[in-house]
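Below is a filled-in request sheet from our internal design queue. Each sheet records the structural input a requester submitted and the sequence that came back. We keep these sheets so that new team members can see what a complete request looks like end to end.

REQUESTER: design group, bay 2
PRIORITY: normal
MODE: inverse folding
CHAIN LENGTH: 454
BACKBONE (tokenized):
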């Protein structure tokens, strides 16, 4: 009789012989590869921050990135892993085992570590260079020690209440293969809340002239985005899935979705004659690769190549329209965090239940799973929003939110805004800054007719 070859979730290649004995041979070591890719991703995000965020002191960006990486790693391994893994209590929290105990699966813990570090990197896109060091540490503590560990346990562990449950007497399943919600939604939403609480320096991205872009910034951001794309592959390495086959087609889906999204965004820029190619439009074309990756992250393991390509194409429209709208607003999202990680992750998570294969794949089961995804997404968004908004608001009230430079910029912006002829609502100030508004352009020296400089 022929032998049967199977893969298990620990990536051991097993041969089940006809006599019932099992031989195992290690064919790969994903943990070291995952660590390497995550470190590469953090380097990429650092380059993106240096080339995109208008902060005079680049050393501040470098320092905050290394502090963030080390801090969230320490907090997660000491506190977060206790919540996320090794046991379960009613599908809500882990068994409470410390990382040093033998019962803890270190490979499993590293999966959560990768998710925490990546989400923290996404969050920093909205606040790096602007926050006080104490505030930075508090936000990192909440992400790595509380918010994400609970999300990991709820969604990625076998007994998590979101992953498997019942709705209207039907078994429902929340599918998130590579962190569409656990990583991208949590990180993107946290960064958005921080950016909104920090407020703007009455700055519009489309008002920044070429003199504000340092020489070499485009190359720095370009290289950084490619590193981010490569580093995100760490989230697609199967380890937490129970007895899943190694789907190398996942990486094919990644390449197809990323390529389709990027090519179509380039095409959109060519089809719009009024939008010339500059630093921001070229970076948008590169960022589209990551947007396509985020779009399929929830179900990259179940999508066919054709579906992955179509979803990548749909991500191009969503990403392009969102990024253009934010570009023309006063929301300071220099790294396109919202368009890439937040918006694409929400739509990707809503679409994945339509493609999950069930034993009895009728319309009622598909509908129940779609409703379950809606319920879970609403719960995740509300939970993250409540915790992070409260944290940022407290930091704002205690004076621990802004660093000195950001405090002065915000004060100048507030004074300039007070000179306007009409008081605007919060959303108008944030999203509908007209051409006659006053704005600050860090790093520029020429006079623009549309505003005053400070």
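RETURNED SEQUENCE:
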């Amino acid at each position: 009789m022929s032998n049967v070859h199977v893969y298990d979730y620990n990536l051991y290649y097993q041969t089940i012989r006809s006599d019932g004995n099992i031989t195992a041979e290690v064919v790969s070591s994903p943990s070291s590869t995952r660590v390497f890719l995550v470190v590469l991703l953090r380097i990429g995000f650092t380059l993106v921050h240096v080339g995109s965020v208008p902060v005079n002191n680049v050393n501040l960006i470098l320092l905050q990135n290394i502090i963030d990486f080390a801090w969230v790693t320490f907090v997660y391994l000491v506190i977060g892993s206790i919540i996320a893994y090794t046991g379960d209590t009613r599908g809500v929290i882990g068994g409470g085992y410390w990382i040093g105990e033998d019962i803890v699966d270190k490979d499993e813990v590293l999966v959560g570590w990768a998710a925490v570090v990546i989400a923290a990197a996404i969050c920093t896109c909205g606040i790096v260079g602007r926050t006080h060091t104490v505030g930075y540490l508090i936000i990192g503590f909440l992400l790595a020690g509380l918010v994400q560990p609970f999300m990991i346990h709820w969604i990625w562990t076998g007994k998590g209440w979101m992953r498997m449950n019942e709705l209207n007497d039907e078994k429902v399943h929340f599918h998130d293969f590579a962190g569409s919600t656990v990583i991208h939604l949590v990180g993107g939403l946290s960064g958005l809340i921080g950016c909104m609480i920090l407020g703007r320096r009455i700055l519009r991205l489309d008002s920044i002239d070429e003199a504000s872009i340092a020489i070499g910034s485009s190359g720095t951001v370009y290289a950084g985005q490619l590193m981010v794309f490569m580093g995100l592959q760490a989230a697609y390495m199967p380890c937490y899935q129970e007895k899943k086959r190694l789907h190398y087609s996942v990486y094919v889906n990644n390449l197809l979705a990323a390529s389709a999204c990027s090519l179509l965004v380039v095409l959109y820029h060519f089809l719009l004659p009024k939008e010339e190619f500059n630093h921001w439009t070229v970076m948008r074309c590169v960022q589209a690769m990551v947007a396509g990756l985020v779009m399929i992250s929830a179900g990259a393991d179940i999508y066919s190549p054709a579906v992955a390509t179509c979803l990548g194409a749909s991500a191009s429209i969503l990403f392009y329209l969102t990024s253009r709208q934010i570009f023309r607003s006063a929301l300071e999202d220099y790294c396109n965090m919202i368009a890439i990680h937040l918006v694409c992750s929400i739509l990707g998570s809503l679409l994945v239940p339509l493609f999950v294969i069930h034993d009895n794949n009728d319309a009622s089961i598909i509908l129940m799973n779609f409703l379950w995804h809606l319920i879970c997404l609403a719960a995740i968004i509300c939970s993250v929003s409540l915790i992070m908004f409260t944290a940022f608001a407290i930091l704002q009230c205690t004076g621990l939110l802004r660093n000195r430079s950001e405090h002065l910029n915000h004060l100048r912006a507030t004074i300039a805004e007070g000179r306007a002829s009409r008081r605007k609502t919060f959303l108008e100030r944030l999203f509908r800054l007209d051409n006659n508004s006053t704005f600050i352009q860090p790093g520029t020296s020429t006079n623009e007719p549309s505003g005053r400089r400070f």
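SHEET NOTES:
- Confidence is low (pLDDT under 50) at residues 1-28, 240-246, 432-454.
- Residues 203 and 439 are 5 Å apart (CA to CA).
FILED BY: M.R.
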